[in-house]
Fold this sequence. Notes:
Strand content: 35-45%
CATH superfamily of the largest domain: endopeptidase domain like (from Nostoc punctiforme)
Number of helices: 5
Order of helices and strands: EEEEHEEEHEEEEEEEEHEEHHEEEEEEE
Strand order of the largest sheet: 19-20-21-22-23-24
Helix content: 10-25%
Shape: globular
Number of strands: 24
Largest sheet: 6 strands, antiparallel, barrel
CATH class of the largest domain: Alpha Beta
CATH architecture of the largest domain: Alpha-Beta Complex
Radius of gyration: 20 Å
Number of domains: 3
Amino acid sequence: MKGISLYSVIPVRAEAREGAEQNTQMLFGELCQIINDKSQITNSKWYRIRLESDGQEGWVDAKMIAPMSAAEYKSHKTALQTAAMVAMPMAYAVSENNGQTIPLTAGTKLTNYQLQMTNGASSARFEVLGVGFRIDPSMVIAQPMDLNQTNLLQAVRFFLNIPYLWGGKNAMGLDCSGFTQVVMSLFGKSLKRNASEQATQGRKIANLKNAQAGDLVFFNHQSPMTNDQLPITHVGIVIDPERVIHCSGRVKVEKLDAEGIYSAEAAAYTHHLVTIRRI
């Protein structure tokens, strides 16, 4: 059974109950496979799902997932490959069907996106399952940006001070790997969901002297030794070889060196460098 999110953000939980830990989130227009046993799907209050975007699994409130036919799923999946994307932390879309406003967070993909000009003024619309939505085109990128320092700084400045939220990947709360996943998607880079998974992607960069804007840096909280065998507990994005932007408490820029992240607030190293990857 296939499904789609028609809500701004859906929490994906570790267990089938409201109080369970949130592992990640499902954004508007995202696809999933419902993987409950067939006998559990009928009249179930909870669906166990696997996200199409990054393969994460978890439990969602069944009434928040809109079922799809196999043909609808295939069509939308194909449309996602060339979709535009919300680039600002928060944007608003208005349904042409009923006039309702839906808040959309950065990283939300907009299928069948079209930019229109009327009397010299620009507007934009997109469609999901045949329903049209209007959106401010200044909130959207129609194609991925080139990954360079100028574009990276332009993108991440809007995310500064968004608070940390375990499992979060939206403008009201992000975790470290949710932040990197959303930001890198703006540059056409697909990341897995967790920091330890992201550390398996791309290629290794030998040291910070060779790092460039957009490289991912991975950390461990306990050990000051750089060692690829240490468990990965944190991830950030290189701005330059001396600065990193990451989400720890909030999204912020801090000093980066061969030992790790030095926090001026804590007057100490808070994260110790393990490895650098270029996606």
